[in-house]
Amino acid sequence: MDHFEILPAELIQNILRYLPGRDLLRVSCVSRNFRSVINYAELFRDLCQRTSRDDTGEWTIECRRRPPRLRLGKQHGKEFCSSPSAESDVNWKQIWTDLVNLQSKHRDYVYPLIDRGVYASTTDREDQILANTLHNGSSFWSSIGTTTTTPPECVAYKLVQPVCVVTAVEIFPFKAVSHHGLPTYGPQRVRISVGFSEHAWHYVSDIMVCGNISEAQVFNIAPDIVVGSHIKIELLGRRSIQPADGLYYIVLKQVKAYGIPLGVLDMPVLAELLLKEATSFGCNVLQDKAPEIALQQLESGFSDSLEARTEGKAMLVRFAAIFKRGDYINAAQYTGRSSAGPLLRDMVEYFEILEAEAGDPTHLQYYRSLSETGIRLNENESLALVRESNRTRDYRLLSQYTSQDDVRVTQNISCTERMGDLIVESARSERDGPVRKEMYLAAMRVYYHATTWDKMIDMLLELCYFGVIMNFPNGIQYQFNWPSMLAQVVERHNSRALGLQFAGIIVQHRRVGDEVHRTLGMQLSVKRRPHESWGKAIVRECVETRSAANDVIESLFKN
User: Element (H or E) spanning 127, and its range?
Assistant: First the structure.
């Protein structure tokens, strides 16, 4: 006897609400009775719109226990009120299936979304406009300065299509290498809004903490499925003071948004629901057209990108076959000569292939051959080159690239602060003195080309290249803190003699003033003779300890 047959359908449905979607599909195969009950729309609608805390998490392949959530209607605090389209006759079972498929194949759909900047709440100067954040260069957007940290700022952008699923936003705070202390002018927190105009926002995220580091920081909206044509980023709280005027600023180097333009989503049921949802918020993409016609028009508007993505996937398969059999030279030539090469070299799967084959000493041939085809390694490829050099402890290619003249270096690799950091992290644990020195030299050159002056100076102190520091170009606006640098030398190398050599060079080559001489002398416990100035006392003891300092320098990078 089937005891479920005597239970009301409503009671069975309430029991089944506690099951995840995959288990519901399995139970539906038990009997016709279960199948008819489970096909009841509300069960799968609840799965699509579930707001349980257990479902929070990033929208990634690994989050299979945290499915995407369909956010329909206007957000009020933590809750979402259904819009008219959410209550219409919808195939919720198919919608749920589409969401699961979308999650497992999200890489096939995610594109850069930002089309152009719309407005910024303030702008400090005419050349520091919002459009600068759309390109990876030396330009930036800056707010006006304020006397406190509390005044907020906001920036808004238009997306590439009238209806887009927004999955993540990425911001890159700007680090001012020409300012004393090299401050990074990031916000304390961010909040992201999505809407269908530049002033109406139907989705508002939680407030998220933003680190004050000059790196790309990703803020996920996924697993929520949120649609819109515009995004707004509220920048809440300021962190850094500009030394020149004592005011707080927020400065962004780059802003990106990622997601799914509706024109690339080959899931008609889900796409039609999202299209109707957009219409309920005033988006005029339908304009009395049938949903199928509107979707076809959106797809045709994105046809070039779709064709390029398809070509990139086909190329990826061919590249993987060549690369995995160890034919790195032909793999590089294939990548460099193909018209879809730039697209391939930005794909996540491309770098997964590089990482999967990591550790082979001959693997560096790929980067050398790619460079010989006239291709400049992009930022991610340059980082992959460093990781491979660290694994194999072979820094010849990296040293060759970084030791060339400025023009040749920028033609071969993309030097970034993160690239230098990876080299230094590995150098700290290297026991072989000559190899460690070679790594520090490579890191120093990378920092130089990345205009990260503070870390470049740190490498020069590590290498005891005091003369290079004294000849630091005057055109570069970097303010030296000589007492702090002297303390680093003495502490790092545990040598007063080396500290005296550095102090003596400072006194002889830099006009730093008597007060700095006094500070340096007191740091090193220099004993002055009667009527002797601090500067002369430092130089005298520097000469007396020169041989001891030279011995320390010679021993630093021996085996």
Answer: none
Using 50, 70 and 90 to split pLDDT, how confident is the model at 153?
very high
Is it the case that residue 553 has pLDDT exceeding 60?
yes
What is d(CA 194, CA 164) in angstroms, rounded to the nearest whole number? 10
CA distance 49 to 96: 10
Q: Strand, coil or helix: what is 362?
A: helix
Q: Indicate the SS3 state at residue 24.
A: helix
Report the C-alpha gap between 555 and 559 in whole angstroms.
9
Confidence at residue 337, expressed as pLDDT on a 0 to 100 scale: 79
CA distances 311 to 264, 306, 307, 485, 552, Å, are: 15, 9, 6, 53, 58
CB 208 within 8 A of CB 199: no
Beta-sheet pairing, 247-249 with 187-195: unpaired
Amino acid at 220: N
Q: What is the pLDDT of residue 358?
A: 67
Q: Which residues contact 93 (CB under 8 A, 6 or more apart)?
A: 39, 41, 44
Which residues have a Cβ under 8 Å from the Cβ of 403 and sit 6 or more positions away? 441, 445
How much is the pTM?
Answer: 0.75
Which residue type sits at 93? K
Which residue, among 37, 32, 31, has the nearest Cα to 16 in the 3D structure?
Answer: 37
DSSP-assigned states of every residue in 400-461: HHHTS-HHHHHHH----HHHHHHHHHHHHT---HHHHHHHHHHHHHHHHHTT-HHHHHHHHH
Q: What angle do CA 401, 407, 410 make, to 5 degrees?
A: 55
Task: Sort 545 into a burial class: Cβ within 10 Å, 0-12 / 13-18 / 19+.
Answer: buried
Contact in structure between 148 and 157 (CB atoms under 8 Å): no
* Tokens at 46, concatenated: 């609840």
Q: What is the pLDDT of residues 474-521, one digit of tens each?
A: 666 677 888 989 999 999 889 999 999 999 988 888 877 888 888 998
* Distance of alpha carbon 41 from alpha carbon 224, whole angstroms: 20
- Domains observed in the chain: 111-286 (2.60.120.260), 470-559 (no CATH)
What's the CA gap between 242 and 115, in Å, rounded?
A: 31
